[in-house]
Amino acid sequence: MDMSFSNAERAEVLTAALPYIKQYSGKTVVIKYGGNAMINEQLKQQVMEDIALLWLIGVKVVLVHGGGPEISEMMTKLGKKAVFVNGLRVTDKETVDIVQMVLAGKVNKSLVNLIQTKGGHAVGLSGIDGGIIEAKMKNEELGYVGEITKIRTQPITDLLEKNYIPVISTVASDRNGNVYNINGDTAAAYIAGALGATRLIMMTDIAGILRDKDDPATLLPQVSITEAKELYESGVISGGMIPKVDCCIEALERGVSNVVIMDGRIPHSILMELLTDEGAGTMVMKG
User: Fold this and answer.
1) pTM of the model
2) Which of 94, 96, 170, 281 is such that its CA lies 20 to 30 A from the CA of 225?
3) C-alpha dihedral over 145, 91, 264, 23, to 10 degrees?
């Protein structure tokens, strides 16, 4: 236990968080989790602590996760080479089996287990369970990469009503029982939209939207949809950030109140975002 804080300072921190606790208690917050925050064991512990704490103060937390690095690792172990077409992973039948095994199995259950060791009650689901994510083939060339056609929120809301944290892996199925790999950011945007979430938090490997991508001091704390589109045109939002911001806009247009892109590498960034004045990362808003 860190003794550098006096009890009075601890009490002050808690009372400062009170208005935020009141604001979010009973509200739905969707957290998209993956990337580096998932690989680093200490960060993973802290993210799960944050989720358990939010749950304990009455926030309805839904955790949507990917697991790209773990999929690649398993493919290597099984002697399978990753093939890319225009930067997108080609997913044949064998690969989608690996994706299902790793995401819906290993990664999903390890996160559920970890949340429970931190004092939260979690249940792991995949997009296949209860038909949460229905999809179709995006494009023949890419194989079993899915495009979302429907979200069913009932299994998620049933768990939230019974006071569980749903932990959802982003694999989906179609009516014929084919299984698809779904982009985690897209799945989180659609799920948050369908739930009418108060907030979607996208954890990434960068501080947020930066005016100069090499200078964290140029972080833009707030960006509207219109400003985001201007930042595309001026090249400020480029590369891997484009699909992330697209997903933020998608979520807003589907009914999420606001979306935050934040640095998952910063310890307890979720709590800083939700329970302090400062916040963390870039908030993308409609207006």
Assistant:
1) 0.94
2) 170
3) 30
